[in-house]
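## retry 2 of 3
previous attempt timed out at serialization; input unchanged, resubmitting
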Amino acid sequence: MTAQATLRNLFILAFALTLIACAPRKDRIVVGSKNFTEQLILGEIIAQQIEAKTHLQVERRFYLAGSYICHQAILGGRIDIYPEYTGTALTAILKQKPEGNREAVYQTVKSEYARRFNLSVGEPFGFNDTFAIEIRGEDARRLGLKTISQAAAYTPQWRAGFGYEFMERPDGYKGLAATYGLRFAAPPRIMDLGLLARALKDKQIDLAAGNTTDGLIPALDLFVLDDDKHYFPPYEAVPIIREQTLADHPEVKQALDELAGKISDHDMQQLNYAVDGQHRDVKQVVRDFLRGSRQ
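## retry succeeded, writing output
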């Protein structure tokens, strides 16, 4: 076989594989998630709910890095659904100012996602996972700190740790530092989200940007400083769904609507702790939670 023929055959094979990858998925739903524990749990909740309430097969494509990767994956049709947060959608995807109450932010995201991306924003799951600026509980008690404004007097002697996305996004580090006048002893360490809480507890850093529903906050005696200048917008968790998926399978919307308002801040914190703190299997944790919520 000539080199030209080999190249032609490889091209035909690649083209065929592309067609297969792009073929409509009439018999299954692909659920994605970002690459941290809460997203894994939410992705599994979505997957198990669809499996329980419909006759559709579900394929799981979890750990898809951050918001931008998930957004591109759903736009490209590689996934059908993934969990997102309204404040993240507003600022990181729509590039709008981080402001507004829960309902205003939700309605803006819902209308703009439909208009610009042909994506449906489902009903909120019930909890608000806003950013949590955390310090050690012992430091909060010793220094009498309750707010970020109060902590700003001490940050020039502190080391900070943040996730990569927090350093880059418009509602992240730069705006926070400008709003509160934060300065640190050294440039912030960029760390994996799953390492921040333990790095704070182990005194590798003195301040971190985590999430309010992190199950390790009470377990590791961490303290969440009050965002007294209301820098962060609401971050209600919602399912993002392709409109074409809903057109093909309207039963998916009905299944996910049953989850609306069913997960409280406390519920999510407990679910996160079951996986991160108790090292339980995420599928079993979700199975137990959904069984209890349906009773």
